[in-house]
Backbone:
């Protein structure tokens, strides 16, 4: 009876501990506030992208936990666009928000992540402006407005000389400068452009990564 009793206990322990051990293998513990440094492999643009569009990137710096590398460099990161605002012509710059959804670790699988964008280093002048991770475009170049005003003044002065002689140049220059300045103001602001190679820093909101079930369909990226 004792042999049967211990056999039943061992069987019960195996049934309970087995799934728990497997679940432990499906989770990676991380320090609070862990940063995820990503380099874009696709492009993002307020002109062409919409809310829900997918993007992809690669991990730049490995992540360590408990003295071992748990997310090596070059791991794949998948995310999506959560908000897009196109730039206006007179006021308002282009804006975009993105999040990272998962990281795929070679030989380990794909892990779900919850993140917030902290920084984006774009060669096109876009930058993160608030705690929500909103990426803002550079806006209009003030030099463009000044240039337009200068060109307008020159054209106006020439037209004034032709129409009214020397004194007409002053009036023509003033009218031309005003017209050029208005043209510069109406010129559309620049949007958010994040080309491949843009480096972004995300902060992980959870202290663990949970493995996702395999995805049976391919990920579609809107370029």
Residues:
């Amino acid at each position: 009876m004792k042999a049967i009793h211990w056999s039943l206990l061992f069987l019960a322990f195996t049934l309970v501990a087995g799934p728990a051990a497997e679940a432990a293998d499906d989770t990676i513990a991380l320090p609070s506030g862990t940063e995820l440094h990503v380099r874009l492999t696709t492009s993002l643009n307020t002109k062409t992208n919409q809310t829900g569009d997918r993007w992809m990137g690669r991990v730049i710096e490995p992540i360590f936990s408990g003295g071992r590398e748990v997310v090596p460099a070059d791991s794949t990161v998948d995310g999506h666009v959560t908000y897009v605002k196109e730039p206006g012509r007179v006021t308002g710059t282009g804006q975009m928000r993105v999040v990272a959804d998962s990281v795929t670790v070679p030989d380990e699988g794909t892990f779900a992540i919850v993140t917030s964008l902290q920084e984006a280093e774009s060669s096109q002048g876009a930058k993160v402006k608030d705690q929500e991770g909103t990426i803002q475009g550079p806006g209009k170049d003030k030099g463009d407005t000044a240039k337009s005003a200068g060109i307008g003044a020159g054209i106006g002065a020439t037209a004034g000389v032709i129409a009214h002689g020397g004194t007409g140049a002053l009036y023509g220059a003033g009218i031309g400068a005003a017209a050029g300045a208005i043209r510069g103001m109406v010129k559309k602001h620049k949007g958010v452009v994040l080309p491949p190679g843009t480096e972004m820093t995300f902060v992980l909101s959870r202290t663990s990564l949970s493995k996702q079930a395999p995805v049976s369909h391919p990920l579609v990226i809107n370029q």
Observations:
- Residues 2 and 8 are 10 Å apart (CA to CA).
- The chain has two domains: 25-140+190-211, 142-186.
